[in-house]
Design brief:
The complex is a heterodimer of chains A (189) and B (112). Chain A is an all-alpha fold. Chain A contains 8 helices and no strands. The longest helix of chain A is centred in the middle third of the chain and has 32 residues. Chain B has 112 residues and is mainly alpha-helical. Classes of the chains: A mainly alpha (189), B mainly alpha (112). Chains A and B meet through helix 2, helix 3, helix 5 and helix 8 of A and helix 1 and helix 2 of B.
Chain lengths: 189, 112
């Protein structure tokens, strides 16, 4: 089934077409979300929400972008929303603890990405921790290129930017990551 | 190798640690679980909860609570005022009955 036929079937509410869509893009969505939220349970939950959103909004899909680009956009938006909620929760917990109501928010948990080579697990965990400090758009560009293996052009399409802007984002992301890693390295010694 | 060069190498190793990584795969039976969730969310809630969770119900309850509070404060104020008046009247009445005014005490002493 080609993409156009799949979209038409989805817009008609065909369950088999939806099953095909999920089975085709479930790993792509899960891997993207996992790279951003860095928690496997949360990533599964959010991936489900991505497909529910796709199912509910497919009728409004006009085909201006590729179906995969559109799904990537939904995955990135959902993940960023979840990250913002987590940050707001942490800030609230910090405020509560500073006035003596409740305990301070816990430190981020050590994240092991299942796809990282065994001999690089420790270094990758430091990198994932440093990625949490990046600005949202730098983080998205870095995750899509490094963990999803997308090209600069594909990332530019997803983020609705020019290739040059994505290159600049990646450059800034790497510079900032170097700073954070340097700080981590000096702090732990 | 100087300490700075060593540190730079470690930083670059960390930065390149995601090179050649494998993509993570969605857990098994992802579609089955997704379908179950969609069915669960599509189920209509019981009529009672549908009614209770309506914004109109929430607003009406909130307005009722505010009204009850205002009425309670007003009623408390009135009772308090009456008690103060009664208390004041009571002391004055008592003083008059027993002639406990300053002049009456003075008069009593001069009459002796």
């Amino acid at each position: 089934m080609n993409e156009q036929a799949l979209i038409l079937s989805l817009q008609k509410g065909d369950q088999q077409a939806f099953k095909l869509l999920v089975e085709t893009w479930q790993h792509m969505v899960y891997n993207t979300v996992l790279g951003i939220v860095q928690n496997s349970e949360e990533a599964e939950d959010l991936s489900q929400e991505v497909f529910i959103q796709v199912y509910q909004s497919i009728k409004s899909f006009r085909g201006e972008a590729k179906l995969s680009t559109w799904i990537y956009r939904i995955a990135v938006t959902k993940s960023l929303d979840a990250e913002r909620k987590k940050k707001a929760k942490k800030r609230f917990a910090f405020l509560k603890s500073s006035i003596g109501l409740g305990e301070q928010a816990e430190e981020p948990i050590h994240f092991d990405h299942p796809g990282v080579q065994l001999d690089k697990k420790e270094e990758a965990a430091i990198l994932f921790r440093a990625m949490q400090q990046l600005a949202e758009n730098q983080r998205i560009a870095f995750v899509l290129i490094k963990t999803e293996g997308l090209s600069y052009q594909e990332v530019a399409d997803i983020m609705q930017l020019t290739v040059k802007s994505v290159e600049a984002l990646m450059h800034r992301a790497k510079e900032n990551l170097r700073k954070h890693i340097h700080q981590y390295y000096n702090g732990s010694q | 190798m100087t300490n700075k060069e060593k540190q730079q190498r470690v930083t670059e190793d960390i930065l390149n640690s995601l090179d050649n990584m494998q993509k993570a795969e969605a857990p098994a039976f992802f579609y089955t679980r997704l379908q179950a969730r969609m069915e669960r969310e599509a189920e209509p809630a019981s009529p009672f909860w549908q009614w209770v969770t309506k914004p109109v119900f929430a607003m009406a309850t909130l307005s009722l609570l505010i009204l009850l509070n205002v009425a309670a404060i007003n009623s408390y104020r009135k009772t308090n005022m009456q008690e103060v008046v009664m208390e004041a009247n009571g002391i004055q009445g008592f003083a008059q009955e027993y002639q406990l005014t300053v002049s009456s005490v003075y008069m009593d002493k001069s009459n002796r």
